Each structure stands twice: as C-alpha cells, then as structure tokens.
Amino acid sequence: MLGLMQNHPLMISGLLDFAARYHGDTEIVSRRVEGDVHRTTYAEVQQRASQCANALDALGLAAQDRVGTLAWNGYRHFELYYAASGSERILHTLNPRLHPEQIAWIINHADDRMVCFDLTFAPIAKAVAAHCPGVKHWVALCEADALPADLAEAIPGVLSYDALLAAQPARYAWPVFDENTASSLCYTSGTTGNPKGVLYSHRSTVLHAYAAALPDVMNLSARDSVLPVVPMFHVNAWGIPYAAALTGAKLVFPGPALDGKSLFELMRDEGVTLAAGVPTVWLGLLNFMRDNKVRIPTLQRTVIGGSAAAPAMIRAFEEELGIHVLHAWGMTEMSPLGTLCSLKNKHLALDKASQFAIQVKQGRPIFGVDVRVVDGNGADLPWDGKSTGNLLVRGPWIASDYYRSEAPSPLQDGWFPTGDVVTIDADGYIQITDRTKDVIKSGGEWISSIELENIAMAHPAVAMAACIARPDPKWDERPLLVVVKREGSTLDRDELLKFYEGKVAKWMIPDDVVFVPAIPLGATGKMLKNRLRAELTAPQAASPQA
Ligand code: ADP
Q1: Does the structure show a pLDDT above 60 at 546?
Q2: Whose alpha carbon is nearest atom 6 of ligand 1?
Q3: Pocket of ligand 1 (CB under 6 A)
Q4: What is the CATH number of domain 12-208?
Q5: Ligand 1: distance of its center to the CA of 329 in Å?
Q6: What pTM did the predictor assign?
C-alpha cells in the first residue's frame, strides 16, 4: 500500500519562491567586480531571476540546454543559479581559474549554448569564443553601458546581462517537472586526466540543501548572515546558495576580493555569522586579523573543508579569534557534503584536549550519506579509528556516473569510491589520512602526508606545508617536506625536522625539507602536490629508515 501523501516534486525554484515569500526583505549583499558593494533582497532576486528566465526563453534556449557561467560569487550569479535551473535548463558553473584551453574543452564537452561571464573574465571569453562554436550567446554580467567596445569587436553579438533582463517581465511561472531532472553541472578540477562532469538533479540539490542546514551540519537559520568564500564555481559553493534560501539566511558574496583585509571588512560590516572556505583562503584572513589585532564579533563559526584543515589552524581560530571551526569533508561528486565534525552529547563532559582531538577529524556522515572503509580487496575494515582503507560512499546526492563519459560507471556494487584513505572510529568519525595518490608508501608501510603536514603547520615559523613522496631505491618512497616560511623567520631544515621528534614514529619523519617561496595552488585553492612531485622529486640515494 502506498502512503496517502502528496507527491510534490522537489524543485530548486521552490527554494527561491519560499525565500521571496517569507524572507522577501532579507538582504543579499555583494562586493561587485565594479568595486562597490551592491545590495538586493530575496524578493528582488525572485523578480530578476524571473526576468532572466524570460530572457532565456526569448533567446530560444530549450529545456535542458546548458547555461555556462564564468563568475565570482555575486547576486547576478545567484540569479542565474535559479533562473537557469528553475526554467528547466542546466546551470553549468565553469572554473575561471583553469587554463583557457581547458575551459574551452569543458564548454564543448558540456555543449553549452550560452556563457555568462563577469567582466573580469572577459579575456577568457575572448580567448575561447572562437573555439566554442556551440555557444550561441555570450553574455557579459554588467550594465549595458559598461560593455567594453573591444569586447563587442572580439565577440560579435555579445550581450549585456542587465540589458537582457530589463527587456523582460518580472514574473515567470516556474515549471514543475520530474524532480530527477538535471539541474546543474560542475566539472571536477581534474588533477589527473580530463575534467569529469558531475550532473546534479533538482531532487539531489534540494535534499542536500536540507542536509546542509541541519544543526550538526552548518546550523543555518533566518538569523544567520552567511559568507561563502568558497566559489560558486566550486561545487555550487558547497550548496550554500540553496541552503541559505531554504532557511532565509542573509547572503554576503565577496566577489573577487578574497584577501584577508577585504574579507575582514565585509564580514565586520555585514554582521557575518558563518563563513565557509578552503584552508588556503583562511590563512590570509588569519594573518590579517592577527597582525592588526582585530576581531569580527558576530562571526561564530566557519566551515573549513576541501582539503585538510590543520589542527594548528583550527586552534588559532578557536583560541585566538573565538571562532568555532566546523571541519567538513566532501567532493564534487557528493554535491559536496559528506561529513562534518561536531561533538555528541557524551563528548560534552570531556576535557578540552579530548574534545579537540575529535574536532580536528573530518567528522561524522550526514544523514543520507552511507560510508564504508575497505581494504585493497574490497573487504570491510573495522571501525576502530586505526584501520586505514579506502572510503566508499552512497546516497541520494552522490553521483552515479559522469556526464557524457565513455568510461564505465565508477560505482562498485552501488558504492562510489572516493579515492580517499581514511580511518573510521566506533562513533563514525572519519579521519582522512590521504588521497590514494598522495599517500607515501615507505618500506611497505603507509605514511599519511596530511599528518606530517599538520605537524609542520603547528610550528610557529611555518606558513604553509606540503608533504610529498620522493622515490627511494631502498624504501620505495620517502616523505619530503615542502615549506613556505613565515615572513622574517630563520627556520632551517634541522630545526624543523627536530620538531617531529616524539610526535610520530622515527621512520615517518621526513627525510628532507625544501623551502620554497610559494606552493602552487590548483583551481580550487588546493595544493598541487602532483606539480610539486614533478618539480622536486628525483630518485635519491637510499636514506635511513630506523
Ligand atoms: P577535486 O577532486 O577535483 O580536487 P573536489 O573538490 O571534489 O575536487 O575534491 C574532493 C577531495 O578533496 C576529497 O576526495 C578529499 O581528498 C579532499 N578533501 C575535501 N575535504 C577534505 C578535508 N576536510 N580533509 C582532507 N581532504 C579533504
């Protein structure tokens, strides 16, 4: 017997309808590429997203046509999120930090019909337009009179987004259709091989938004002011543009200004209560707030994920700045949220140090995400917090396949292999020790590069650290530490290696340290260890492994 409940499909447009109806005057604040701070509301976003959807109709875009974006976090990008998906097109967020050739490849692979770009990214649009014949409309996210003359010469027919909207009525009847219909598309950053497209649905997106808002996840409410530093082109800014509408939270978009000073000022001025981003962006903010001895009184918590947040960074946020860190783990294929770290009731009685030991882990699975840890043969390993193996996941917001992929589905008996190496403890807390491709295999043992990086990051003279495998004739691989020193520090190799003594087994201590001015970061702000390996590792003579 079926239940007697209405079968109303979960639609992305429903999120904006809700926010506009019940939180119509709640603000959406954006630092624009134009340099100023722009203010709008959910009610106005609803109107402009409607105008935008009417414009997509007028331009002849069919249902399920891909609408590409090359844009920072801002209100126009936010409008496009709802206009494209809400009108049954597919929003395709492109990562502007990729090389233009790679961007053109992705646009063509996705077969985008339209690409909307911030003026900052006009050079990319100009560089790729001629190579993307499938794109019928190039739209600059600006007012009509801000369209640079040379842009119109380089891309004949280029349109102004604001002019397009101005010509359209501010009402749109958002269609209702199968909730499993594709809504948006995001390519993985593709550190190995070509990027792969992850195609989200209305259902997966709305369920993920519910999950993201939960108290043990981001704990979002209508009293929050949320600043996603994580870009809207990186896995939908971790779902915040949807979860904020679902809860009626105020949104604050930083645009292109991601340096510590700009972020600090925007957070202070807009009463930001929650911010989210990858560890590398927080270094700038931390340093600025330390150096200038300033605080953001409203900022209660920050979600840090995308790569491991070093315990030293978590401690600095908590103890120096009074900001609670929620360590999160996920991936593009998971919309992205998989786990988030928060304590349980029974942990409240623990002392601070024991609580901290839990808090630095990547956290517990969110309801909806099933996990397993398996060995090389696919056999389940115990959840004892010690056994290390490959993490498998499944759930309603986890990819079943890649878009237009010729390869067989990545699933193994219905489970998605994450490529992450983890331990899971009896309470379900997951600790990521490495990505499979970054783990250091020394003398038959595995050394966690993240653990060695975390130790280096705890040294006061270290600004950033990456640990990579260096080929070794005797041990197969040995750890090599690559470090950016804090300004003015005189730290040397021996002092740093001595810092490891007593913190890990002797044979795990890195063989050597290379000091560099900067560590290369990928398109989503993660350390490019593959490039470091290529640049810095040459076969070495056998080294001691006690
Ligand atoms: P890409 O795989 O293309 O770099 P993603 O953003 O999807 O893009 O990356 C997901 C990966 O990032 C995860 O599989 C994991 O290796 C890593 N990651 C994400 N969050 C964390 C975290 N909190 N700690 C350690 N690694 C993380």
Answers
A1: no
A2: 331
A3: 188-189, 191, 305-308, 327-332, 336, 362, 418-420, 432, 435, 524, 526
A4: 3.40.50.12780
A5: 7
A6: 0.94
